[in-house]
Amino acid sequence: MRTDRARRLIVGNWKMNLDQAGARHLAAAIATAAKAETYFSDMVICPPYTLLHAAKEALAGSTIRLGAQDVFWEEKGAFTGKISPGMLVDAGVDYCIVGHSECRGRFGAGAVEPRLARYFADDDETVRLKFSALLKHGIKPILCVGETEQERKEGRADQVVHDQVSRVIVALAEDATGAAVAYEPVWAIGTGQVCDPEEAARMAARIREILDRCRQTGIRVLYGGSVTPENAEALFAHEEIQGALVGGASLRVDSFTTIVRYAG
Ligand code: PGA
């Protein structure tokens, strides 16, 4: 059996999908599968805000944890449309994604028209504020980082990812054990074009170096971007990849649990 340190973390990011009945059904099916089989990885599902309650009820009595997809860093007040870390705690949330490339307005190839992208305006500073606010409330942040196709072509992938991680982690006062950093190359998200596993492992190792240098050894490094049952085994052959952030393939119980099985 794996030790706690080596357990992988598999996160299902449902994005803007499903309704009450669909969320209840999918969460219950994943919980049933997790009870029937012993998985050696931690599992989290991240439904949209409106479906957190339905998913929470369906997960009752299981070991699967609930996550949100975003947060605002202030406690409360006149912030129409925003959700605070305290509200997430109240909703029974344990994890929260921050800095997803889609929230930064950096979409995978052809996923959204440029006129829409400008409405998603997260940057390293807002991501840092969100990350810290979550930690203060005992919610484990899942920080997403990754380069665009253009940045990779220009040979800037390592620098971009280095900057995105450091700007959030370096000045962090708290111990962020339990949090995660997901390396998600933007060009691999929702495109079916998974990153070569060797390269994903190399990038994960680079991120690990930054985390270790900042004494954040309890943060796991995940890979995300077109993870499917077909490529999961090859990705998890690399110890550097300590889990996965799964989008499309997390919307079906069979594909999600197959990925969890490959995580070992
Ligand atoms: P994908 O999404 O698995 O559909 O590529 C991953 C993500 O955006 O977190």
Structure description:
There is one protein chain. It contains ten helices and eight strands. The chain has 264 residues and is α/β, with parallel strands linked by helices. The protein has one domain: TIM Barrel (Alpha-Beta Barrel). The chain has an eight-stranded parallel beta barrel with strand order 1-2-3-4-5-6-7-8, surrounded by five helices. Strand 3 (65-68), helix 3 (85-90) and strand 4 (95-98) form a beta-alpha-beta unit. Helix 1 packs parallel to helix 2 and helix 7 (157-169) runs parallel beside helix 8 (197-213). The radius of gyration is 17 Å and the shape is globular. The structure holds 2-phosphoglycolic acid (PGA). 2-phosphoglycolic acid is lined by residues 13, 184, 189-190, 224-227, 245-249. The site of 2-phosphoglycolic acid (PGA) has 13 residues, from strand 8.
Radius of gyration: 17 Å
Put simply, the count of helices is 10
The number of distinct structural domains comes to 1
Strand tally is 8
Shape: globular
Distance separating the two termini: 9 Å
Summarize the amount of helix as a percent range: 25-40%
Structural class of the secondary elements? alpha/beta
What is the CATH class name?
Answer: Alpha Beta
CATH superfamily: Aldolase class I
What percentage of amino acids are in beta strands? 5-15%
Q: Could you give the order of strands across the largest sheet? A: 1-2-3-4-5-6-7-8
- Poorly predicted tracts of residues: 1-5
- Summarize the main sheet: 8 strands, parallel, barrel
Mean pLDDT: 95
